[in-house]
## 1
Amino acid sequence: MNGYVRLVYRNIRANLDKASLFFELIFPLFFIFVEGYGYTGIIQPFDLGNGRLIPYKVYLAAGAVCLTVINGGTNAGTQLWYDRKNGMFEQILMGPFNRAQYILGIVLATLIIGIAGSLLVFGLAFPVLGYSIAWTLRGALLVAFSLVIGTVFFGGLAIALSVVLRSSETFQIVSSFIFFVFLFTSSVFFPAATAPEPIRTISLLNPLTYTADIFRDGLFGLSPALLALELPVLAIEAAAIFAVAVFAFRRIRV
Amino acid sequence: MLTTLLPPTTGSATVLGFDLRTQGSKIRERIGVVQQQDSFDQGLNVETSMDLYGLLWNVPKSVRRERIEQLIKDFSMEEFRRTSSLDLSIGQRRRLQVAREFMHEMDILFLDEPTVGLDPLVRRTALNYFKQKVKEGLSIFFTTHILEEAEYLCNRIAVINHGRIVAVDTPANLKRKFGTAKEVEFRFLEGTSEEFQRLLSTEDEVESVEFDKESGAYKAKTSKPELVIPEVYHVAERLGLHVSSVYISETTLEDAFISMVEGADKEAKVA
């Protein structure tokens, strides 16, 4: 069996327990069904810029699917953190793997969890919401891009945090806080363009805004001009944070 | 460093003929390591931990199954084979860590204080297991502070002091070269005698004679106990004392180790 497949399987099996994965799924569904239906009564369907009216619950559902990307990304940090705490980091590096393979194993496991989780939430939420998507190749590619690059960004961030923060409590609290900031200053819950300053500016720096916007574009179709800006910005942000994560990872002392 | 976890700062070294700096992956493919620190997969039970570890080493499933059964038996882990690693005691977790390393084939096994946390019975079982593996052709690089274990297990011992090798030899040769004087311990049927102590001390082969109030025994340090024992009887007879017991204590590897390290420290200070 290929070395990466073995590492990825081991990462998913050893470092991620079923209960955590279950709650990671429940979390976005809770937003979709409770908050989505709750606010739909007071928020009228609105135009995303392409002339189509979208109910708030559908708008929120698309954003909440991207929330799974954050959760999936956090897993990257958790995997590395547990391996370092439990001595498996050193153990694996003294086995038939090098550092690059190890970190790539974590990234691939994170991508699988992040994307599979997102698709599962999507598959559970959209049929219930009664909104049918007219899939196109362009739309599918945009959805894939947003999920993969979004997961890479948040995975990279979580890896960097897990290198810097050695205590379990600090890692949990700081990563939860940072991810909540990303969540509430993004376009997951509201369109960034219509938000008041300075939330609007902050949300335009937030990669989760671009992840959610590109994902929505894949589903509903948005302005090509906006996409031309958002695609490279998200890619650059993900590349930058991933470079930071690799730099931090390389500095881990054994 | 030999396990390639740390890069060499200066110099060069080879393991199994492979260069540490340039052929690390070839070395890692052929070694096994039991670290001093804990290493376990959080929340997995003993069987699954071993299976997953075997998978990391690309051991086929059927072989993994066989090895798991054998190792669980060899390391007496039947009782807790389905217990989560988080619920294992320190000793049980250590047992798992040691046993798990034998899930894959290797040419050299690095053991860094592998018996820490093991009870005496399991410790002896593990040492015997290592010994058996050595007989079957495995080379073991064993790091320990417990010198009885080194003496029991190792064919060659390197003593390291402040990062430098002070001596490398067989346990017997190290004891011979660096062993301090042996001790002849004896008691009288009744009474003590300062005169006896003084007279015996003047003998050529005797380095010192001390009286241990707690045990009521005299202890004479010497490198030639076979010459001192007749003298003990001779002097006792002259003073009208009756020797009730005589015991020779062997030089231990620990004695030799202390002598080596102290010698090396003195040399360093002089330099």
Note: Chain B has two domains: 14-154, 181-250.
## 2
Amino acid sequence: MSSSTRRDLNRRLKGWPGWILLIFVVVGFLVVGATRDTGPRTPDERIESISKRLACPVCQGESVYESRNTASNQIREGIRQGVNEGNLSDEQIIQQISVAYEGEELLVPTGSGVEALAWALPATAFVLGTAGLAFAFRRWQRAARMLGVATPEDYELVARALADESLDKTIDVSVDLAVDTSTEEPRLGTPDRS
Amino acid sequence: MIAASFNGALGHFGLLLMLTASFVGALSTGLAIVVGNRKGIRQAAVYAWLILAGALISVIAMQRALETRDYSLAYIQQVGSSTTPGIYNVAAMWSALEGSILLWVLVLAAFTAAVAWRFRKRADDPLVAWAMVVMFVVCAFFALVSFGPASPFQAGPTVPIGFDGRGPNPLLQNHILVLFHPPILYLGYVGFTVPFAFAIAALITGRVGEGWLLETRRWALFSWGFLTIGILLGGWWSYEVLGWSGVWAWDPVENASLLPWLTGTAYIHSVLVQQRRGMLRVWNLSLLVATFALTILGTFLTRSGIINSVHAFSAGQIDGYLLGFFGLVVVVSLGLIAWRGDRLRSPGIMDSPLSREGAFLANNVVFTVFAFIVLLGTVFPLIVEALQDRRTVVGAPYFDRLSMPIGLSLLFLMAVAPVLPWRKASQELLRQRLFWPAWCGAGALIVAVLVGADGWAPLIAFALAGFAAGAALRQIALATRRQGLWGLFGRANGGMVVHLGVILVAVALVASNAYTESTELRLTVGEPVEWSGHTFELVEVVGERDARTDVTRANVRLDGDRIYGPAFTTYLQMGQPIPTPSVRTGLTHDVYLTIAGTNAPVVGSNQAVLEVFRKPLILWLWIGGLMMAVGTVLSAFPGRRRRDPLDPVSARIPEPRKRITEPAVSDV
């Protein structure tokens, strides 16, 4: 296959049909893969999942799942009993343990009261960040429109500047469109340009 | 503060030397800059070497005290023991608060001397001189803390003849990584002091262009690299030692190391926009200040005892100092940025969000929000306690839930950003450049589904990881086709190697979080048990005892082949038994064995209860970390087609008023 034929084939593959096929493949496999997920399947997986949601009552910020101490082992055993009973939901098991341990704590803040801040503040930060970015780009685009289209004179200036640089190792220090001269600085250890 | 021994006197002398040299160095260099005394400015290097000498003397004194078990010092009483093996005895220096500050002091002093040496030919440049002043001020602060409230050389109470200490915490003498993880992490933390110092110097001198960025690019890059490796080594250590088979628990101390990493990562991306386009000056300065300030805040959070953590040191000795210094750093930095506001105004504009710089900005927003979430989750218990006077815990499920969409966003940006040109991209160009990377993503998804992966989030993560890997490989392929092996060097191409490492880390984390299986196995000698495709057979339960430890080991034959020995180790001086897991590492998954419960099985018994984990793809986490380290080194060296980064990217107006010969290109 000649290189031009290969290039042509490559270009055709990258057209819209190739992308549409890609989208079908991705969506199809995602749906197949994701819908067969049924959550924790074995009792061990349920025990693990519940123990990750509970704080060890005597540790320094560890979960029951991570902690290896006696209190956490007892709670794990309580979870195991709850799971083995077979008719309790995860929430009911957690509730049972919470009562048994008088104030057992969840590792996830609730969605009410002060604890709702733990969810609301990140969402607010994300919205503010995205909005700030959108605002900045809008402002830049407005500024770009005000600059207008480059004129033949502009192109000539660029060409002359580039030719100037390639002919000798001198630099123009008068005015620079890209760099505000009021903030221009000398390289370290080199004579001041002003 | 009377030295109780030669080691104590020597250590105090070293710290005093450092403290004095730092104070005098900061004052005299600052004064010399103000009055224009070039000879005085050049003296900064002398102070830097004195600071290093002081720190070295103190560390040698501490190591000598540990080696000779000098129990006249309170710190040695706390962490020294005649039974601690040599290598762990060296590491005992940073096993408690005072010694960890001493390690910080040593690394900081080494960086200060390195800066003085690196910029020795430009010592009288005001930018360098002010940077040295800032380094001296930071040195003075840490020397003061180490000499005063957190002195490891304070005399201890008199001990009886024959006294022997308890040694370091058992978890700090249980794995060789204790020798490497803290020092490497500190190289990362402290290394960011250098770009921070130059940023402050740039603000003071008003030279807020791109010069200081270029001078500190490698310093920032290597600091970031060390921080990355330090964090990953911490994960490895946790995996090998703690017995719960995890690498990351969102513990406050772990979060404290992640915070500067997140802002540092945002910085090393957005700084490229400033180098290329002269934009984002305030933003880059803010990120750098945030990175440095977060190292101090993290140190405060973890060393003040106000937050519960398995890593936290003893409470309350230096919290006021650290909080005060954090406040000083923030106030001074923000004040300087406000003062130089007019000069920091960016001269350029961004043409389109669909551009390399647009992608970097989006990356920065995501990283910043991520850092905010980690900080919020870490300090949230304090907020609740302050408002409602009740205890609460914010743990892994909270961070996992919020970090998942952020991780997916970052993978998507990693896929798209490398193919984007600067300034503006057309739809057609994106369609062409992203096609094969996107099919790589589809391929990754297909493979994942075929091998049995399920769940929306993990599958999307695998697809995006494949997409990002395709984009990075495309860049590397193009660069190496053009330049041969040189195509692997330079910030763009080395950066792609780092991206590949990050992708491996992400895939390994997703797979191990989503698909780890675990169970409790009751094993009896001679009765093999099958679980998850493996056979476990208890061979024996043995005891091993020496002067330091009492070990009960359950030897288990795995798949009829090698024997693995999870154990319970009791450190006799401490009396605290800790589980010591045993791991069979493989390319597809690890088998992680640990003794269940809190009691060791009886030696000689024919039964043992094990907790067994099947952890997929964990090995690739460490391989990814190695690739990130290699990529960092590659990006520190210039590629063959390196352009002068100070060249303007747009035209100059050709009406020269005067010309000067261009100075020689900086050797940095």
Note: Chain B touches chain A through 111 residues (CB under 8 Å).
